[in-house]
Amino acid sequence: MAATQEEIVAGLAEIVNEIAGIPAEDVQLDKSFTDDLDVDSLSMVEVVVAAEERFDVKIPDDDVKNLKTVGDAADYILKHQA
Amino acid sequence: MTSKIKPGKGAPYARITGVGGYRPTRVVPNEEILKHIDSSDEWIRSRSGIATRHWAGPEETVAVMAVEAAGKAIADAGLDPEQIGGVIVATVSHFKQTPAIATEIAHKLGAGKPAAFDINAGCAAFGYGLTLAKGMVTEGSAEHVLVIGVERLSDLTDVTDRSTAFLFGDGAGAVVVGPSQEPAMGPSVWGSEGDKSDVISQTVPWDGYRVGDVGQLPVGADGELKFPAIRQEGQAVFRWAVFEMAKVAQQALDAAGVSPADLDVFIPHQANMRIIDSMVKTLKLPEHVTVARDVETTGNTSAASIPLAMERLLATGQAKSGDTALVIGFGAGLAYAATVVTLP
Ligand SMILES: CC(C)(COP(=O)(O)OP(=O)(O)OC[C@H]1O[C@@H](n2cnc3c(N)ncnc32)[C@H](O)[C@@H]1OP(=O)(O)O)[C@@H](O)C(=O)NCCC(=O)NCCS
User: Fold this and answer.
1) pTM to 2 decimals?
2) Which domains does chain B have, with CATH numbers?
3) Exposed site from B62, B132, B302, B338, fewest CB < 10 Å?
């Protein structure tokens, strides 16, 4: 079943916490991965790979660049999840 | 008429019996790399874990480094060079198409007339060599086989390319594979994904300089034609390495019937500390497993990285003879090879 935006954000929060050690409650829609959450370009690849597994989506390298905030990623997953 | 053919008689099993390494004398710190690219020591360390690497001088040729490392491996195995029946050289930095450099290396070592050949499988090539050597020993076509990984990647580095200039290093590592009464090398999990063959590659083929469109050839700021270099799509490689290679490493453990709890040492190809950290996490390796982190002071030496890291772990006492180690190589091709071995 497709995940809701709320579920996606909660899932991303767990993933970011696991990969970058950021408290899950800091992971909110308007937060920028690199500027606010200490997720650098390589950690971002790990976040994307984990999100692909969890939400059954494909996020190609070319699209990763456009996912600046948690909200960008949540919207992308909402739109593309199988 | 179909005659009855007598098969060879090999050893019941194979094992690594000796290891040796050679690191060029010149140490190149990040500061030197920064002369040619817009970057910082902090960025390089945080994205790759690399602080220094060794770059070979003019006298430290591929053959010289290989002979140094291989000589130590032969001595470590307690053998004389004449006992070596096979020499496999894994490299991408031997610049003469023919003959293979393995024959010259075998001769310089004082080996008799061993089977000698080069293999090209990028950063996976050491594992490919191990697999071939194991087959030769157990099938009976050689009793002791040298597997040498040797690279002068500084020759193939574009010092102005921000995504590779800081990554590569030079050096040689070698092991001897010989007979064993006990299993000491697990099944190889190896393969390639040629649909991604353009993700890591040489910028122009050698014949590009002869027949190619000159406009396609690399040119320096001074207008001079430049040597080809290795280029890569860093993010694509990183994604493949952290996601797919952890699975391959797990398959190698499963194939050998070894659980992470039974493992003593993990020696992944030394490409980038971030890839190593991610694999350790994904594989859920317990605290007691010693992880090779030689990349910090050696950089990425492609086919040489695993035996160099193995040699250092043993020399510094971080690992000991008889330990069970998971090794995995991966890179250009994209090709990969993983296996579980008993350390010499
Ligand atoms: C090479 C590697 C470290 C580059 O890291 P990356 O995060 O992919 O780099 P990107 O090119 O996406 O750039 C990310 C940011 O860092 C910057 N950057 C790139 N190279 C830089 C450098 N050398 N110094 C400083 N900043 C750099 C970019 O400009 C970009 O900044 P921006 O976000 O403000 O635009 C990384 O991709 C890698 O190691 N991949 C695996 C490669 C490997 O191991 N290959 C061999 C396998 S055998």
Assistant:
1) 0.94
2) 13-180 (3.40.47.10), 189-196+230-342 (3.40.47.10)
3) B132
